[in-house]
Each structure stands twice: as C-alpha cells, then as structure tokens.
Amino acid sequence: MTSAAEPAETDRAARLADVVAALEEFYPSASAASWDKVGLVSGDPEQPVQRVRFAVDPTLSVIEAARDDGVDLLVTHHPLLLRGVHSVATTSAKGAAVTALVVSDLALYCAHTNADVARPGVNDALAGACGLPDGCDALDEEDGQPIGRVGDLPEPLTLKEFAQRLAAELPGAPVGVRVSGDPAAQVRRVAVLGGAGDDRFDVVRRSGADVYVTADLRHHPALEAREEVRGGTPYLIDAGHWATESLWLAAAADRLRERLAETGLTVDTDICTIRTDPWDFLVAGPEAAAQNDLT
C-alpha cells in the first residue's frame, strides 16, 4: 500500500530515461543507416522531463528558444553531430550549440533515418499530405528497412492540381514547391521520399509512379531523370527539405505524449515554430512569373 507521503507509481515524474525508452520503441536507433548519428546527444538519463519540444533542426536559435521556454528535452530530426568535431568552443556555431545544451541542462535526442523508415514515420506523414491512404508500400528497401512510400490517390488529378493541394498541406517556405512536368498531365500513382531524394530515380521509375515528391533535387540528376523518360512520367516535385520533414513533428509529439500517458507519466509536448529552412525570400524574374501563371 502506498502512503500519502509516497506518490503512486502512476504519479511519478517522467525521467529522461523514460522518454528515451519510448522514443527508442518508436524509432529504434538500430534501424538508422550505418552512417547516421542518432539517439541521445546530451542529458542525464535520471533528470526529470516535463516539457518536450520537437523540431527538424537543432540549430542554435532552436536550442536557445527551447532553453528560454523551459523545455527539458529537444527532439530533432536532424543530428547535431553527424560529422566529427574536434572542438566545442563557442567560437563556432556547433560549439555554441553543444555548450548551450550542456549549460542549460537541455537534453537533445535525434531521430533521423530511423524516423524515416519507421511506421508511422517521416515518410508516412509526407504520404498523408499528398493524399495517399494509410499503409502505403515501401518505395525501396535498404538493409532490410523500408525507404520512402508509394501509393495511389483515391482519384486522378492533374499535376498542377496535385502540386497545389500538396503546397497547401506543407508549412510555408519562401522557395515553395518546384514542379517538372506538364501541368495538365493526369497523375495518380505517387512516390514520396522526405528530404534529399535524387539518388532514387531508378527505383521511382520501377515503381510506376506518375509523380515523385521529394526535395533537394540537383540540376544534373533532375535533368537526366527527366530526359530518361523523354518528358513522360514520373514527373518531379521538389517540395523542400525542411517542409517535407516537418510534417512528421506533430504526429510524433502526440504519439510520445500518449505513450507516456499509458504508463502513468505526464509530459507536455509542443512543436518548434522557428522555420529552419535556410532560404528567406524568393525573387522571380518576369519570365519565371509568366511561366508560373499556368491556366
């Protein structure tokens, strides 16, 4: 029997270890790509956690805002220390970020490629924004893990209609959505890959997709991909790295809060409101503006 002076097990405060265990259940670090750096970056597993914030990037501004808002744990999609560093002096942005985390007792956990391949995960959120049903097939597999998603829309749309609907579902970013293909062409089968995806064109073609939604499409790979199909399918949509991956945050935050509640632990979760897309504005020349005025 629990005395009045002793809180019941269901009333105990959440520890960082409890939250990390739930995150590892959803996004096992072992499922990340071999080159990736995921998991707990800073923090004491025994420290209490009351407020958790989700963000795409662990930039200095994101870390400082979390610190100022009293956040205990920052969960980001992109790793802070993906490449080796030899100094964490505050003379560099990376060093300043690490120092801010440690000095503020702000824990950082990163779920990157392990969140990409998870179900539900980053690519399921992007598939949903595209209008695809739940349970889409994996676009590709690598080391036994599903990469990307591919599925069919409930009904065909023109490429322009599809791009417009997707743009309305994405968080606003200055560069917007770039499209390659005939705006009047009909599309139904859609392949998606959040973040950089111009290394999967062969797989996308084999999937029979009419349109491929991804990000960070470079000039030469994109041009060659379009030439390869002689102007046909798949058409290409570059929806932005930050935008395509930020869709995952809300669902991940809700899922974590609900999972912890099942074990009697209460934490508050929120989403970072700082846009970490690196571009700030777009200037379109007269010719580009005319080309975008599609009717």
Automatic annotation (TrEMBL):
Signal peptide interval: none
The keyword Protease appears for this protein: no
Gene Ontology terms for molecular function: metal ion binding
Keyword Metal-binding applies: yes
Keywords associated with the record: Metal-binding
GO CC entries: cytoplasm
Similarity comment: Belongs to the GTP cyclohydrolase I type 2/NIF3 family.
Description of how the protein assembles with itself and partners: Homohexamer.
Protein name per Swiss-Prot or TrEMBL: GTP cyclohydrolase 1 type 2 homolog
